[in-house]
Amino acid sequence: MAFPVIDISRIDDPEAQLDIALKITEASRTWGFLLLKNHPIPNEDVDAMFQLGRDFFNLPPAGKDSWPINDKYMGYNAPLSDRRKDDKASMWLAGKPGQLQNSLDALPPFWHAHIDEVEAFKHACHALVVKLLVCFALAMELPDRNFFAKAHGEAEGDGNQLRILSYPARGNAPADKITRMSPHSDSGSVTLLFQTCAGLEVESPSGEWMPAPHLDDHILVNLGDALAFWSGGRLRATKHRVTFGTVPHDVERISMAYFGAASHDTVLQPLKQEEGGEAQVLRDYNANGVVIQPGVTVGEYLKVIMNNIYGNGAMHQLVVETPKAHGIAV
Ligand SMILES: O=C(O)CCC(=O)C(=O)O
Ligand SMILES: [Fe+2]
């Protein structure tokens, strides 16, 4: 089965939309990964963000280290701090519009002059995520084509995160045990991944690690566990990783992920079969070592996941005291 590459140039054209929605949804069900061709985000804007990332990561430690990632997913994460072992750095620029401007103390000074550019880029990413969410609802024949999209209001988007990543060049061949990006699935709804070169490996539908193809000017899309669970298993959150085997150790690799998540008060109840869910009920849906339970909110779930990655090394599980009953609480 070939890795899906889908042309979305006519995604807003009513005559082409359903066909595109069916292709995107089928790729999301089988692979959980796809490449978007002819997407609406201008390549110059993507390149400009990459350049900001490069300039930032090139700063001396004094320009970065005093602003570690905080509980609002803003700030810097230095090499070997992510999962306490991954050899990459990243900068998190999260939250709804206005949050960056209101949180300048949490951001390295480098970013203060670039807030508007970052916000505009996040806004464009969000608009594309919403288009994809509409496609899923259309292809699943849900009564409301905005079923997923309406839980992703940009103004409520505390969990929307832009993350710029740097896999620094290393002079020596690394020791075996050091990873670049440990195997994981993403946690929210839809991730847009922008890459300057190949390097990502994904779990294929038959369960083997394989390199994700890299095509210039395409966006790699993958899905998070919250949406996969909520869809009743119709959409797949696929594991992926970056290793020293796939990225040459002596050149820096820059990538950028926009994580689109539903608002924190969205309640995750898997779609029933008559609503488009799979017959198999999603019991014990285990994602990155955390069991997602029906009735949990997106905010509760994302918090546990982030604590497990950035916390003191202890693994937390979700405790849902009073599961909420409805599909969406917005
Ligand atoms: O750097 C990449 O290509 C992957 C990044 C990623 O998987 C993530 O940030 O969740
Ligand atoms: Fe990821």
UniProtKB/TrEMBL annotation:
Gene3D superfamilies: B-lactam Antibiotic, Isopenicillin N Synthase, Chain. GO terms for biological process: small molecule biosynthetic process. One of its GO terms (molecular function) is metal ion binding. The keyword Disulfide bond does not apply. Keywords: Iron, Metal-binding, Oxidoreductase. Residues 158-262 form the Fe2OG dioxygenase domain. Pfam families: 2OG-FeII_Oxy, DIOX_N. Belongs to the iron/ascorbate-dependent oxidoreductase family. This is Fe2OG dioxygenase domain-containing protein. It comes from Oleoguttula mirabilis.
